[in-house]
Each structure stands twice: as C-alpha cells, then as structure tokens.
Automatic annotation (TrEMBL):
Designated name of the protein: Threonylcarbamoyl-AMP synthase
Record-annotated YrdC-like domain positions: 8-197
Single GO term (MF): tRNA binding
Binding site for ATP: R53, S150, R193, Y231
Gene Ontology CC, one term: cytoplasm
Enzyme Commission no: 2.7.7.87
Subcellular compartments: Cytoplasm
Biological process according to GO: regulation of translational fidelity; tRNA processing
Classification via NCBIfam families: L-threonylcarbamoyladenylate synthase
Binding site residues for L-threonine: T30, H62, R116, A140, S142, S179
Amino acid sequence: MVLDGQQDASITAAAQALRAGQLVGLPTETVYGLAADADNDQAVAQVYTTKGRPADHPLIVHVADASGIGHFARNVPAFAQALVQAFWPGPLTLILPRRPGHGAAAAGQQDSIGLRCPAHPVAQALLRACVAAGVHGVAAPSANRFGRVSPTTAAHVQDEFGDGLLVLDGGACAVGIESTIVDCTRGVPVLLRPGAITRAQIAAACGIAPLSKEELPAHTPRASGTLEAHYAPNAKVRLMDTKALQAGLDLLGSDAAHLAVYARTPLRAPQVLLRRMPQDAEAAAQELFAALRGFDDAGVRLVWIEWPPATPEWEGVRDRLQRAAAA
Ligand code: TXA
Ligand code: MG
C-alpha cells in the first residue's frame, strides 16, 4: 500500500507500524529504504529475509539528527564529528564503534554500526515521529531484493515487494545513488562506498584525505554495498569506451534486437534503444537506477554503456556501473 508521505496521517501510520515491528518503505534523498525499528531484532530479521540478504551483511541505521548517535555509537572520533557537522542531514553514512547492547542485529553482530541522518523531508518527519514513539533509529537497507538495482521511486519499491508493504511516497529521489560511506573506526576516514559526497568534500570538511579500502592493511567487514557484483538489472551490462561502442554498433548494423545503449556521446545507432546519459554527473546519478530498470521493462537483454569520465565527480556513478557490469 502506497501512502502520500506529505500527509501527517501517513507519517503517524508509518511510525506506528515501525513501533509495532512492521516494515515500511521509506523515501530518502538517495534511494528508498526498507525500514525497521533498529532496536527490534525480530523486525530487523524480517528485513533480511524480505530482501534475501545474508544476515552477516550489516544495515545502515537512520537517525533523526546528530543527537541520535549516542544511542547506537560511542567513542566518536573528532574527524567523524566534523563530518556530521558538515554533511548531516545528507547522503553520508558513518561507520562508528557500536554501543554494546544496541543495534546488534542491524549491525550484523559486528562491533561497529553504520549511521546516517537523511535529509528527505518525509524521512525527517518519520524519524522524528519515531523518536516521539520511542523508536530511536530505523535500520534501512535499500528497498530492493539482494543484489538488484536500488529503488528511486515508490513504484520501484512496489515492484520489488508487492502491495503488502506500507510504502511512504516521497517522489523520485533527488540524489539517486546510495550514500557515501566513510568508516570512522580506523583512526582515519576510509571511503567504503563512493556517493554524492566526494573524497575532496570529505577531506575539506575534516582535514584528512580519506583512504580507499584497498589501502587498508586488515580486511574490512563484509558489506554488500561493496560487493563487486551488485546493483544489477536483469539485462547484461557491458561498459565500453566511446570508440569501442561506436565500432560495435557499426558492426551490428540492423542485427541489434534486445540491445540498448546508454551513452553521453551522440552515436550512430539506428536500430537500438538509445538513451542519452546526462552530461552532468549529478543528473546522471539521479536517473541511473531508473534508467537500468527502464531497460528491463523494455525487455532489453544487453545494455552497452559508455564509460563516464574518470573524474572525481563521476566516482559514484562509475562505481555503480562497474558493479552492474560485474553481475
Ligand atoms: O543511501 C543509503 O545509504 C541507502 C538509504 C536507504 O539510506 N541505504 C543503503 O543501505 O544503501 P544498504 O543496506 O543497501 O547498504 C548498507 C551498506 C553495507 O553494504 C555496508 O557497505 C555498509 O552499509 N555498512 C553498514 N553497516 C556497516 C558496518 N557496521 N560496517 C561496515 N559497513 C557497514
Ligand atoms: Mg543496497
């Protein structure tokens, strides 16, 4: 059932559902989440089974504001506090030392916890209503089945889980790809997942350039958003540079049924479903997952995608494309 997230009655109903241990489809500025009371282990367990997600892959816990951190985390380093100051509410998740006895199921039993304060007004309204109802945070992975493309509209969430789920409609997500994740448990910031907030912004806000997870000595906790093959549509995705893409299209001629092309460069491609990727990285991120779902809806079996530029503002989009192509 989809409810209008603008209505107070919808927010009240969703907060009550969460309080009662039910799941709710939640709009955020990045993607839609599948939310459960983070302190209710049974509700959290249901998130894992509904998604088909392995139980040792931790979920992100969403809080109404920075005052919600202390319930779930402790020993927050100064650089993490600077990031909270700079980017909350917004598309930034921090991995922090977990407060023992809190959010264990959501954290996949790890001694760290991922916290995020979403900026979307519907998410904000719901999280504040939750606090008033005694729910300190909601665990919410992206509202899609494990490994699939994340949803950026309420209709996408319904496509994934059917009409039995209560979904708050907050419109199309403005950012379109999942939050930037920074691990703050290793003494320096470590970028676990690129997103709308860039490395340069992180460095500027806290004074320390983030490391990449490849630069870490020890192994990082298991994390599905960081699996190589993820965010995949049904169609096979192949990433190509502009030249190879045009050469492939010229070779195919009219023999290109079930092929789609997603490219920023104008190409000669008479017979295929050709979709232009926005020139601007933010606009490309915003429509990316809807575009991938659109290819599936059109019955396409193969999508050739032109690599976007290897510049910092494209890091999040390139990351998601790479994972879609790895499936
Ligand atoms: O934008 C987003 O972050 C969206 C919206 C709904 O807020 N949520 C999201 O959640 O992408 P999810 O569950 O699909 O991604 C969770 C990822 C994990 O795959 C992992 O990479 C990281 O967050 N994560 C969460 N808790 C962690 C922890 N304790 N240690 C390490 N990584 C963690
Ligand atoms: Mg996900």
